[in-house]
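Dear Dr. H.,

I hope your travels went smoothly. While you were away I took the liberty of generating a structure for the chain from your last submission, since the lab meeting agenda had it listed for discussion. I wanted you to have the full record in hand beforehand rather than looking at slides cold. The sequence, exactly as received, is reproduced here:
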Amino acid sequence: MTVHRTRTRLRTLIRTEMHHLTAINASDRRWQMPLAAALASGLPILVGAYLDHMDYGLVSSLGGMVFLYLPDTPLYHRMVSLMACAFGLAACYALGLMSQFLPPLMMPVLSFIAILVTMVCRFYRLEPPGSMFFIMAASIGAYSPVRVLDVPLYVGLLTMGSLLAGLIALFYSVHILRRQAPKPVAPLPPATFDFVVFDSVVIGVFVGISLALAQILQLDRAYWVPVSCLAVIQGMSLRAVWNRQTQRILGTGIGLLLSWGLLVLPMDKWTIAVMMTVLTFVIETMVVRHYGIAVVFITPLTIFLAEAANLGQGAPALLIRARFWDTVLGCIVGLIGGVCLHSPRFRAVVGRQVRRLTPARLIS
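The corresponding predicted structure, in token form, is as follows:
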């Protein structure tokens, strides 16, 4: 009888997990949005290919990702929100670039960015992708080998990509608002200490820990470790954290196979530019429906976004292996952080200490 009950529970558990992993969400996202997002990130790469400066185009393409923060509100609120996000993205990228000149500061700088950005995103209730691309910009910047005098150039390139994304967002918004009414600008709910301050501090600390472990293990250009950690830990529940971790590892594994297949193909700069544009369109179409499927395409996009300028200088298998272990390490740290974040005992014990170190004005 005990064996039978154990088998029944195991089958129920497997069915439950498979349901969470394979469920496809409904979405009312129109096709114009993924197309506009693909243009915002793809056009800078095409310009870089035309000018024979793929490295410049890739940096501007990272700035074009700010389009994904465009809300469904009236036009004035959309553009103000997008400009604020563009400023934040440029600031995070600049701090990431500068941190590489003092490697011991890389971990505390990234932790500080993660804490501050998460606080701001939670205070203003910024919808997904939330703090994701701000941390990604800082991480990629930290592992981008540039000279000190080139920092203003690269920050300017990213800002120009954000400006182009803003222009595309303006035309897209004028078009789409003629077809559907905007959502009203909702008043901000009261900011609580636990949601805005405590959660942000815990998330930032674990993002920093993930980068510190990557440095201790001497992982090569481990920009994807803190990003993977953040993607997992920011789930709104422990179930969401577990689902994201599982979907991210499985999706990354399949995505790395796709990346390896793409890397072994004879591609020139134009092929890479078009491919990255198509990948962005597919990702923004799928991410609201199934996160794991979207990760399959996010994996090659991020690899090309950070490595396309250096492709052909090393074996693809080494790059694929490095990104896989980056993902595994980041997801493990993110899962541990998620367990702590959703543990009542952890929140009670650590929360008291954080409150003591927090200025009274931030708590009230």
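Two observations you may find useful: The CA atoms of residues 41 and 65 lie 6 Å apart. Residues 28-182+191-356 form one domain.

With kind regards,
E. W.
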